[in-house]
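Exercise 7b. Backbone tokens:
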């Protein structure tokens, strides 16, 4: 009888071990924007590719719209291992002490995506991602969202039109200085709180890529949008370093391949999604869209140019100079 019980126990333990070995590795991928944004679609694309390339060994669960954590909480959750993967905006790394990422917040530093990709897809971007590792974070890729434009309930044609306006920004000292350079009042606020803040008048306006403005329905509570394209908003896809390095080598390689495909997809659709969102804003009839003239755009550039000199020490003058060299931007020649 004892032998029989022992055999039954061994068989049960064996089946349990097999079931455990066959259970997929779960990767919780949390982000704060809507599922139909460029980042939301790219996250789902990555989840699908991960399942396909790992043949079900890894399962990526995507949580959009701050379903797991608000944007103020998610970085700590990643470092603690409560969530395995995030795609935060690049401004989120400043509070961690990795201030170099705030270089992406400098106004007009990238003229277009071609200039941007010289950095995010080159050695400068790779070196920046490597600076996250001492924080227990592994950087996998940069994903585009797009260039930001200003919105408010009054027309915006000149920098002076933003004077005295309370403008929502992400937590970034560079962005604070950017808003002050045009006479605005920077208001740091979680992304999930912006719609209500605009609706109630807690803030007067915001800066966003059009896809974020449209999918969060901010255009319903903003009467004017001016396509300044003054700054860039992108994301770094990151994972908990200990978790990532603990994965089986074959699975990690397959996930890296899935991420490479997802990154190409994310960057391909970013402009398409912003163009589609802009059409949606126009068709809504709720927000007047204004395209600045060449001289008006230059006026915004000149107004914001001092930000580069004032904030150079924060991100590192050498880093800024290396970016200028790649992109050809020179704030002193405006």
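Sequence design result:
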């Amino acid at each position: 009888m004892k032998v029989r019980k022992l055999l039954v126990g061994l068989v049960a333990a064996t089946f349990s071990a097999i079931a455990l070995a066959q259970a997929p590795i779960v990767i919780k991928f949390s982000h704060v924007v809507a599922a139909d944004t460029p980042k939301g679609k790219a996250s789902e694309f990555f989840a699908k590719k991960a399942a396909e390339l790992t043949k079900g060994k890894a399962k990526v669960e995507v949580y959009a719209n701050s379903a797991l954590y608000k944007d103020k909480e998610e970085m700590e959750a990643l470092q603690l291992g409560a969530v395995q993967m995030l795609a935060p905006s690049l401004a989120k790394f400043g509070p961690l002490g990795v201030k170099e990422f705030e270089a992406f917040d400098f106004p007009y530093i990238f003229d277009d995506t071609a200039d941007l990709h010289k950095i995010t897809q080159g050695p400068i971007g790779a070196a920046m991602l490597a600076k996250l590792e001492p924080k227990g974070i592994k950087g996998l890729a940069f994903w585009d969202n797009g260039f930001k434009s200003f919105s408010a309930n009054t027309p915006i044609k000149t920098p002076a039109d933003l004077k005295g306006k309370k403008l929502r920004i992400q937590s970034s000292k560079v962005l604070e200085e950017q808003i002050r350079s045009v006479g605005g009042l920077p208001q740091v606020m979680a992304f999930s709180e912006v719609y209500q803040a605009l609706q109630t008048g807690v803030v007067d306006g915001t800066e966003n890529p059009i896809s974020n403005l449209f999918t969060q329905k901010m255009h319903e509570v903003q009467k004017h949008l001016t396509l300044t394209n003054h700054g860039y908003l992108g994301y770094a896809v990151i994972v908990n370093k200990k978790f990532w390095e603990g994965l089986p080598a074959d699975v990690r390689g397959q996930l890296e391949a899935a991420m490479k495909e997802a990154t190409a997809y994310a960057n391909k659709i970013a402009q398409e999604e912003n163009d589609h969102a802009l059409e949606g804003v126009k068709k809504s009839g709720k927000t007047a869209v204004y395209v600045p003239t060449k001289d008006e755009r230059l006026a915004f550039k000149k107004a914001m140019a001092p930000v580069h000199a004032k904030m150079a020490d924060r991100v590192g003058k050498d880093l800024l100079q290396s970016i200028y060299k790649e992109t050809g931007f020179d704030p002193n020649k405006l």
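Instructor comment: The mean pLDDT is 92. DSSP finds 13 helices and nine strands in the chain.
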